[in-house]
Amino acid sequence: MANHSIAAIDVGTTKICTIVAEVDQHQDLRILGVGVGPSAGLARGMVDNIQAGIEAIASSVERAERASGTRILSAHVGIAGPHVSSMNSRGIVAIGDPRHPITDDDVQRALESARIVNVPTNREVIHVVPRYYVVDGQDHVIDPSGMFGSRLDVETHVVTSSSSAMHNLMQCIEGAGVRTESLILEPLASAEAVLSREEMQQGVVIVDIGGGTTDVAVFVDGAVVHTAVLPIGGIHMTRDLVVALRVPQPAAELAKRKYGHVIPSMVSEDEEVEVEAFGSEGSKQMPRRLLAQVLQARTEELFELVLTEIRRGADPEVLSAGMVLSGGASSVPGIDLLAEEVMGLPARVGRPQHLAGLSDLLHDPAYATSVGLLRWALKEQEVMFRSTPVVAPALGGIFKKVAHLMRVILPQ
Ligand SMILES: Nc1ncnc2c1ncn2[C@@H]1O[C@H](COP(=O)(O)OP(=O)(O)OP(=O)(O)O)[C@@H](O)[C@H]1O
Ligand SMILES: [Mg+2]
What we know:
By secondary structure, this protein is α/β, with parallel strands linked by helices. It is built from ten helices and 21 strands. It has a domain at 86-161: Dna Ligase, domain 1 (2-Layer Sandwich). The relative contact order is 0.16. The protein binds adenosine-5'-triphosphate and magnesium ion.
């Protein structure tokens, strides 16, 4: 396949990041341009002001267009929030003629049967991610195409979203002049950017701590078993500092980034920091350890919630590769150590890697989701080129995008 371009929009609670990249014949990404701007019109992953959302998205898209010298006509878009939920579902089909090997069409039929779960009318399916296949009782088959059998089962992870929240997001994207190529669950995207195949195989959880949400995805035996989006993030850490220290929000945000730590004992007892204050005081001195205590309490609570989510998908004991942290709030010092302490799992902070082109900014953990959207979309396209779907899925046309692929981004 010849080089082509691809675009993604990560609509976060604090920032909107649009990336345009070129994909070469080896499926490697070369970043052509990035556009980052503040987010607006969005609360906890859901649009609450369409006009503000459109303007913020349009501004990020324009920046990426200017930086890359391209026109973005369509893009892959991240989705996360309390309106998204996930479950595991099994699809089963009979193979018409067991004397012939299983075809890609049989696999698609099995995936379609897994999709027909009990989805209420006000929800839509975003993903049916195959975890593994079973051919005539033979378990954990990775790719059944070409195998012989009379019955094909597929274990999948199905992600659904509230229709209205999903359409509001797509409305904002469209209002910014961009067609939504596909919607991608953010924790799955982050995983693609920062986890290695080996980690997924050995059992791992990705925890992307953003501004308003913390995205969780648990992987066992190379496949996703649980995803969740918790409505807590860096914004709440800052808010705690505002309340505990009685300082304005911008000052608390600055202090968090400059002096933040989540292990108070690692901060010198007599280190004082200066933080802008309310009222006539101008600024006030306070122990840096106090900041760390406030941040520790919130982060510990967050990890307890994450642990509860992990248990919904797997026994934490089986996650040999432990936990990988990403998202802007994972930059606070000590967070990997605190994670290890609370979870009893090895932890590291993950950054997007192996990017060529104008990618300096993207090596930060805050861009795991943004880069992951491109990686996930690329992986899906690879699968699509291998197989021809037999049933048109939801989101009208997502799977028809192959034809558009070469025309997604036109040079200006
Ligand atoms: N060095 C730092 N130390 C502590 N927190 C930081 C640092 N840098 C960024 N953050 C925090 O990271 C958060 C933003 O992270 P990120 O950019 O991943 O969020 P987002 O994608 O906009 O939001 P979400 O994914 O929740 O929708 C902010 O709350 C910010 O305060
Ligand atoms: Mg994010």
